[in-house]
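REQUEST
  id: r-88c1
  op: predict_structure
  target: Glutathione S-transferase family protein
  payload:
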Amino acid sequence: MITLYDHPRSGNCYKVRLFLSLINLPYRREFIDVLARKNQTDAFERISAWRQVPAIDDDGLAVWDSHAILLYLAQKHAPQWLAPLPHSAQMVSWISVSANEIANSLQPLRLTKVVSLAEAAHHLGVSEAMLDLNGLQQRTDRLLGLIEKRLGASPWLATVPSVADIACYGYLALAEEAEIDVNVYPAISAWRRRIEELPGYVAPGQVT
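RESPONSE
  id: r-88c1
  status: 200
  body:
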């Protein structure tokens, strides 16, 4: 059985829990107390090279990084979540958006709202004085505007449902925790509802 090394407040961990539930794949959870630095050990580094959650152990095979995990699980257990040609390039592009644009805007902005600024700075690898809250907000606003434009033209990021939607949904599902009014973005709101209506959906705070 797959072991998921997990933290319940992490959006990256949530997207893996969500996908495991959507594809109805049983797993066991092992809580890693990131705030207490329990991930900063040599033992955990053998599972996750960057000592980050999420990571999984699939019968001795360690896979880390939420997007690598999503692709691995889809390839092994749920190929219907891999967009076919010609949409596969769009899928990879939107996974890249999750790993880059979301990870450098909405994700850290939300972090500054749910933990102390000192704790957020530690996890972001900067000093508290270097936290650019205005810059994070501006990048988040631009990100949401571009995603809104895409979802206004297509019901799914890669035209068809794919792991790209789950990758990006992980933190867009938590946008309210970043003090974002999602009602301003009707296409994003409708897309979130489409995902929430999928069989097997679990909410961010729900642990299966």
